[in-house]
Specification:
The complex is a heterodimer of chains A (437) and B (249). With 437 residues, chain A is α/β, with parallel strands linked by helices. Chain A is 22% helix and 37% strand. Chain A has a domain of 48 residues. In chain A, the strands form two sheets. In chain A, strands 1, 4, 5, 7, 8, 10, 12, 14, 16, 18 and 20 form an eleven-stranded mixed beta sheet that branches. Chain A has a ten-stranded mixed beta sheet with strand order 3-2-6-9-11-13-15-17-19-21, with helices on one face. Chain B has a six-stranded mixed beta sheet, sandwiched between helices. A four-stranded antiparallel beta sheet of chain B has the order 2-1-4-5. In chain B, strand 9, helix 6 and strand 10 form a beta-alpha-beta unit. The chains are: A alpha/beta (437), B alpha/beta (249).
Chain lengths: 437, 249
C-alpha cells in the first residue's frame, strides 16, 4: 500500500487513542482533510524541485510503534550534550521516555505535548498557540493530523531558564522501518530566555522517516537560542518544519548542523510580528556519499525596523547533493529592514551538486537587503602553503574547511555545543583539530 | 646539503628550468638573482614540491635524499622552508594555531610527542620578539588583512619557529620598507648557523646589504649562467643583466 493510503486508512485506529471531542482534534481533522487533498509533495512543486522524497516514501513504515522500548543510558549518552546540566525531553519511537528525561513544572513547563493536549490546565494556552503559526502545507498538515506527542515548553514572562533544554527523539526500529511525527510547541514569554538543543537519532539501520513540526512563539524582548544537530544514521531521513513567530524586540537564533542522514529537508520559517526584531539563521552542512540536504528558509519581514541575518556554509563531497533556497519577503510596511543573507558552498568532488537560490521579494523602498552566494573549491594555493609548513594534505584540507565554516561555529553560545560540533565536523572530515578555532 | 643536477621543469607544458645546477652546503648563504621570467620562483616552488610544476629531468637531493619522491609536507618535515613571495591568507585560523599545528605535525612525522604548551608559548614569545611582532598580531587570522611587510615578517617568524635546514626566501624583500627590511634581515641573520643554509632569491641587491651571501648566482633562461661572490650582486645592480646576456651569445 502507498504510504499516503496507509496513513489515511490508519486514521480511524489513531482516533481510538485520542480525545476526538477536543478542539485540538478539530484542528487535526482539518489538517487530515488538507493532506488528503494535497498528498505528499512532488518535484512538480517549485519548493520541492530539487528534493525528491520518492525513495523515502516507498518504505513500508510502521506508523505506531506499540510499546516504549527501554534503552540503556550508557548506549545513548553520546547523543546528549552530557557535559552540561540540562533539562531533557526524550522520546523513543515517538513515545515519552521518563527514564531518560528530566522535565520540570517548577518555574516553567518543560514537559510533554501529550499532557498539554489532554490536561484542562493547558487548554487555554493550547487553543491560543497550537497550529497557529504553522503553515498548512503538505507535510505540516500531515504532522498536525497525527499530532499527539513532542516537547511542550512554556516559559513565563521575565524568566531566564538557566539550563539548556535538550529534545531528543530516538528510534530503535529493530524490526521494521519506522515513521514518527513529533510535534513541539515552545512558548517563550515576554523578556524570557531559553536555550534549546534538538536532535533526532536513529539507533537502527532500518529506514526511518521523521516528519517534525516545531512552533516557537517568542513574545516581546524574548531571547531564544536554538540548536539543531542533524547527524543521523544514513538510513534515516528527516523533514524538519519549524515555524517561528516573533514579537517586538525579540531575538531568535537557529543554528542547524546537518552532517548525517539520508535525506534531510529543513523548512525554517520566521515571521516578524513587531518592530526591532532580530532573526538569526545559521547552518553548516557537510555531506558525502549520496546524502541530500535541503535548506529552505523564509524570513517574512512584516513590520518596520527589523533585522535578519542568514549565514549558511556547505561542504559537499562525492555524489552528495544539496539545496539552499533562502527566501526573504519585505512587506511594504517593513521600512528600515536590514536583511542579510550569505550562502557559501564548497564542492569537493566533480559529482557533488549544490542548487543555491536566493529569493528576495522586496516591496518596501527604504531597506538594506544584501545577499551573497558563492560556489567554489578549496584553495590549492592555501593548501600548498599549509603543506609547505609541514601540515599533511588531508589535515590541511580539514583545517581549510574548518576555517570556512568558522563564521557559523563562532556564534554558537553554548561552549559544550560548540565543542561537540567541532568534534563532529572533525570526525566527518577525518581530521584532528588540535585546538579550538 | 642541497644538490641540484641538470634540473628541468615545466608548467602547463612550457619548459622553465632547462638544466639547472647548484650545490649548497651547510653554513652557506646563496643568492639567486636574475631578470623577470628567468625561473627564480619556479626553482623555489620546485624545491618545495608544488604540484603544478612537473620535473622532467635531473635530480634534487637534500642530504642525500631524493626530494622529487616526497610530498610537500614531507619535504617540510625534512627541513625545507619556503618563505613565499605572496603568502596566502587563511581566514579563520590564527597565526598561533597555525604555527602550533605546523610544529606538532612536523614533530609527529618525526615520531615525537606534541610540544608541551608551556614550551610552545615560550618559543612563540622569543621568536616574536626577535621579529618585533606585536602579541596581538598572533591572535589574528593568518595573513588576513596583513600589510605586505607584516606578511613577510610573519613568514620569517614561522621560519624561526620551524628551524629549517634549508630556508628559501623568495623575494622576501619585495614590498618591504627599509625598517621592515632591517627587521627581517636581522631575523634571518640570527637564525643562520653552521648547520643550516639559506637561499635568497631577489631582484635587487638591497637585501644583500643586510644578508651577505657567500655566493651569488645569475639565473637566466632556466639555467645558472654565472656564479660569483657578493661583489657580483653589486656589479649587477650597477650594470643590469644585459651584459650577462651578451656574454652568453
Amino acid at each position: 500500500m502507498e504510504l499516503q493510503d496507509k496513513l489515511l486508512s490508519s486514521y480511524i485506529a489513531f482516533e481510538d487513542n485520542v480525545d476526538t471531542d477536543s478542539s485540538v482534534h478539530e484542528v487535526r481533522s482539518q489538517a487530515l482533510q488538507n493532506f488528503e487533498k494535497v498528498g505528499f509533495p512532488t518535484k512538480k512543486l517549485e519548493a520541492w524541485k530539487y528534493t525528491s522524497l520518492n525513495s523515502v516514501l516507498k518504505q513500508d513504515y510502521s506508523l505506531f510503534p506499540a510499546k516504549v522500548e527501554a534503552i540503556e543510558l550508557a548506549d545513548v549518552k553520546q547523543y546528549f550534550i552530557h557535559e552540561i546540566d540540562s533539562y531533557k525531553v526524550v522520546f523513543i519511537n515517538g513515545k515519552y521516555s521518563s527514564f531518560l528525561s528530566q522535565t520540570t513544572h517548577e518555574h516553567y513547563d518543560v514537559c510533554l505535548m501529550s499532557s498539554a493536549l489532554s490536561s484542562p490546565k493547558y487548554k487555554e494556552t493550547i487553543d491560543k498557540y497550537f497550529n497557529k503559526v504553522a503553515k498548512q502545507d503538505n507535510l505540516t498538515s500531515l504532522n498536525t493530523a497525527f499530532a499527539t506527542e513532542g516537547a511542550y515548553i512554556h516559559i513565563p514572562k521575565n524568566t531566564v531558564v538557566k539550563k539548556p533544554i535538550q529534545i531528543i527523539n530516538f528510534i530503535t526500529g529493530a524490526e521494521a522501518a519506522t515513521m514518527v511525527q513529533p510535534r513541539n510547541l515552545i512558548i517563550v514569554g515576554e523578556n524570557a530566555q531559553v536555550q534549546i538543543i534538538e536532535r533526532h537519532q536513529s539507533l537502527t539501520s532500518n529506514a526511518v522517516l521523521s516528519n517534525v513540526v516545531t512552533e516557537v512563539f517568542a513574545d516581546k524582548a524574548a531571547n531564544v537560542d536554538y540548536y539543531k544537530i542533524q547527524d543521523d544514521e544514513i538510513s534515516a531521513s528527516l523533514v524538519d518544519n519549524s515555524y517561528i513567530e516573533q514579537k517586538s524586540n525579540s531575538v531568535v537564533s537557529v543554528h542547524t548542523f546537518s552532517f548525517g542522514g539520508n535525506i534531510t529537508r529543513n523548512n525554517l520559517n520566521f515571521y516578524q510580528k513587531g518592530e526591532h526584531i532580530d532573526s538569526i539563521l545559521k547552518g553548516i552542512t557537510i555531506t558525502e556519499g549520496k546524502q541530500h540536504v535541503d535548506h529552505h528558509t523564509l524570513v517574512h519581514h512584516i513590520e518596520p525596523n527589523c533585522e535578519s541575518h542568514q549565514d549558511y556554509k556547505g561542504i559537499y563531497d562525492e555524489r552528495s547533493t544539496a539545496v539552499f533556497n533562502g527566501k526573504v519577503i519585505v512587506e511594504k510596511e517593513a521600512q528600515k529592514t536590514n536583511a542579510y543573507q550569505q550562502n557559501n558552498n564548497v564542492l569537493l568532488s566533480d559529482k557533488a551538486t549544490i542548487n543555491a537560490k536566493p529569493q528576495l521579494e522586496i516591496f518596501a523602498d527604504d531597506v538594506k537587503c544584501s545577499h551573497g552566494c558563492t560556489i567554489g573549491q578549496l584553495d590549492d594555493d592555501a593548501l600548498f602553503y599549509m603543506q609547505q609548513r609541514g601540515i599533511p594534505e588531508k589535515q590541511g584540507k580539514g583545517l581549510l574547511m574548518f576555517a570556512f565554516a568558522n563564521t557559523v561555529l563562532e556564534s554558537v553560545k553554548i561552549p559544550e555545543v560548540k565543542q561537540r560540533i567541532t568534534k563532529l565536523i572533525a570526525n566527518k572530515l577525518g581530521v584532528n583539530i588540535g585546538f579550538d578555532l | 646539503m642541497l644538490k641540484i643536477e641538470n634540473l628541468e621543469a615545466e608548467i602547463d607544458g612550457k619548459a622553465i628550468l632547462k638544466g639547472l645546477n647548484i650545490e649548497v652546503n651547510a653554513g652557506e648563504v646563496h643568492a639567486i638573482m636574475g631578470p623577470n621570467g628567468a625561473g627564480k620562483s619556479t626553482l623555489a616552488n620546485v624545491i618545495a614540491g608544488k604540484e603544478e610544476y612537473e620535473v622532467t629531468g635531473g635530480n634534487i637531493e637534500l642530504n642525500g635524499e631524493d626530494l622529487n619522491e616526497l610530498a610537500p609536507e614531507e619535504r617540510a618535515h625534512n627541513g625545507v622552508f619556503l618563505s613565499f613571495q605572496y603568502p596566502v591568507e587563511i581566514p579563520g585560523v590564527s597565526v598561533t594555531n597555525f604555527i602550533k599545528t605546523a610544529i606538532n605535525e612536523t614533530r609527529k612525522a618525526k615520531g615525537l610527542e606534541d610540544m608541551p604548551a608551556k614550551d610552545m608559548l615560550k618559543m612563540i614569545r622569543e621568536k616574536s620578539e626577535l621579529l618585533e611582532i606585536d602579541r596581538k598580531f598572533l591572535g589574528r587570522s593568518l595573513n588576513e588583512g596583513f600589510s605586505g611587510g607584516e606578511k613577510k615578517r610573519n613568514e620569517i617568524f614561522q621560519m624561526a619557529m620551524l628551524e629549517p635546514k634549508l630556508a628559501i626566501l623568495d623575494e622576501t624583500d619585495s614590498g618591504l620598507d627599509i625598517d621592515a627590511l632591517r627587521i627581517v634581515a636581522n631575523g634571518v641573520n640570527k637564525l643562520k648557523s653552521k648547520d643550516n643554509a639559506v637561499i635568497v632569491i631577489t631582484h635587487y641587491q638591497r637585501l644583500l646589504d643586510y644578508i651577505v651571501p657567500d655566493f651569488v648566482h645569475v639565473l637566466h633562461d632556466g639555467k645558472i649562467v654565472k656564479t660569483g661572490d657578493a661583489s657580483l650582486a653589486l656589479e649587477l645592480e650597477a650594470k643590469g643583466y644585459d651584459w650577462i646576456k651578451q656574454e652568453l651569445v
